[in-house]
């Protein structure tokens, strides 16, 4: 299997989003979501518009990473997907239900140190 690191050049992004990118990266660093790295891997970032506007009436934005090339090398786990009928049946008779809305939910699970390269 090909274990060559995926290293892609960064995409240029417009100056109009440069302040947003800088702020997002600083926030991710400050919150321990990312850290400085000398990894041989590099995936480009860009900014996409989200639905709605912020408190200043500007279109909401989010920072995304292009992991397509890395995903091509990722070996997926195969397991059966639960049937919705079975899931709903298991919920029957329950007294309490909880819903959670995690901000940036994909940042909620830490990687083990050995998996961070």
Automatic annotation (TrEMBL):
Reverse transcriptase domain boundaries: 49-116
GO biological process, one term: DNA biosynthetic process
Top-level taxon: Eukaryota
Protein name as it appears in the record: Retrovirus-related Pol polyprotein from transposon gypsy
Naturally occurring in which organism (per UniProt): Bactrocera dorsalis
Gene that encodes it: POLY
């Amino acid at each position: 299997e090909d274990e060559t690191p995926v290293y892609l050049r960064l995409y240029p992004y417009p100056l109009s989003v440069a302040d947003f990118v800088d702020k997002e990266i600083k926030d991710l660093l400050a919150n321990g979501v990312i850290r400085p790295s000398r990894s041989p891997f590099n995936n480009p970032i860009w900014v996409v518009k989200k639905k709605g506007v912020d408190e200043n009436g500007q279109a909401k934005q989010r920072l995304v990473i292009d992991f397509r090339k890395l995903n091509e090398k990722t070996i997926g786990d195969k397991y059966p997907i639960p049937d919705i009928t079975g899931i709903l049946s298991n919920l029957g008779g329950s007294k309490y239900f909880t819903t959670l809305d995690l901000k940036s939910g994909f940042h909620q699970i830490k990687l083990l140190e050995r998996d961070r390269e």
